[in-house]
Amino acid sequence: PETQVGQELLRFPPDFVWGAATAAFQIEGATGIDGRGPSIWDTFAATPGKVLGGDTGEPACDHYHRYAADVGLMADLGLGAYRFSLAWPRIQPTGAGRVEPRGLAFYDRLVDELLEYGIQPVATLYHWDLPQALEDHGGWRNRDTAYRFAEYAALTHAHLADRVQLWTTLNEPWCSAFLGYGNGVHAPGVVDPRAALEAAHHLMLGHGLALRAMRSSAPADHRFSIVLNFCSTWADRDDEAHRVAVRKVDGLQNRLFLDPLGGRGYPADVVEDTAWLGDWQRVVRDGDPEVIASPIDWMGVNYYSPTRIAPAPADHVTEGPFAGLRGVTVLPPRGELTGFGWEVDARAFTELLERLGRDVAVPLVITENGSAFPDVLRDGEVVDADRTRYLIDHLRAVHTAIARGVDVRGYFAWSLLDNFEWAAGYSQRFGIVHVDFGTQVRTVKHSGHTLGRVISRNGVPAGGYEPV
Ligand code: GBH
């Protein structure tokens, strides 16, 4: 293999945090033991036709039993931090009241193992696995769920507060609301755009209530956040009609969350665009906007792919996940696509980060970025050239944003392990570590070795794609 001695290195800031991310339901398996209650994803996956191939949360990566070896892998890769989520139904099997000590004990073991290796834990309280018992009462359509979430957050935070400083309330509330209740491709599978908007409000209320509850008893060095997935929208033209279409999509996915978090309330144009669905704003009560605007310390940014759109007739209901949007059509992706069919575009990442640098008052952390490609196994190695190129190009994109003045503090690759990819089951692999779901054997992919090298040098080569 060619070497590139002297190749210029794009260096990251000295205290830049390098990590990888996962989520409880996607990796843990062990869904029926130690008192864990069912989540909406157990129910959804058990419903024929909802998850590709009938795949379920079993066995996933059996991480519940293999966490120690997985932490060892993280140490081998040189990760400084690990972003994971806690399963609410392990900790409160019915989402309210009784706490299951065996559930908390698993996260004790995991966190202690991470600390043993000097890996900083970054805890996400909710990555989509709502206790089914709460869904039976309406789930996120029910305001009460926001209060239940705050209780769960407070007790979980209190339990780990002496060991975990970095916390995230929700992962991608847009997905929970619009994929879960809008177009129904995610659990609980409800198709009702108005319910999606009401759920979005209750999710944000839950975020604010949880933040306040945790903050009131937190040590001074704790840092709280929310993780959002942003739509990075491309239109082919810059005429008035295209600008309106871009504004609509940006409103429903980005500003619907950014504005209330920033204390600006729900954007007037989004309220107007969605009025045809009925007055979803009736679920917003006095005091809610202040709760939602409770200050965060950092914002998590998940980025994968841009979305191409064009204007459509005013009464055209937008297809795909933009439930409740009218006058916009989603165009097919172009150029290089991942195995999932998502467009590869690192420039859109830089552009998004620059925009967030202007519009968000707190430091940013890339909490997820990655790609699904079929893996090429050769002589016991996983040669994932496509994923490796995606990784390097997107790291360069982050570096460019930082060089242009955006305050980005860290990068977490999605994902540490191949895992249960929601509605796609085990058919899409995002890992920098390959998992054989039959034998549970882990193999670090070329992308994983590449990230390890980037971490050890705190920099990414300015050109080319070095072989590992
Ligand atoms: C992340 O969400 C999740 O946080 C993570 O758990 C997941 O494994 C990872 O992405 C990879 O999927 O037209 O309905 O197919 C990413 C957010 C939102 C990105 C939906 C792709 C396509 C919408 N995703 N979007 S759809």
TrEMBL record:
Give the GO biological process terms: cellulose catabolic process
Q: What Gene3D superfamilies does this protein's entry cite? A: Glycosidases
Assigned EC number:
3.2.1.21
Active site annotated at which positions? 172, 368
Q: Which GO molecular function terms does the record list?
A: beta-glucosidase activity
A Pfam family (short name) is Glyco_hydro_1
Broadest EC class assigned to this enzyme: hydrolase
One CC-aspect GO term? cytosol
What PANTHER family does the annotation carry?
GLYCOSYL HYDROLASE (PTHR10353), LP05116P (PTHR10353:SF36)
**Descriptive protein name:** Beta-glucosidase
To which species is this protein native?
Saccharothrix tamanrassetensis
What broad taxonomic lineage does this protein's source fall under?
Answer: Bacteria, Bacillati, Actinomycetota, Actinomycetes, Pseudonocardiales
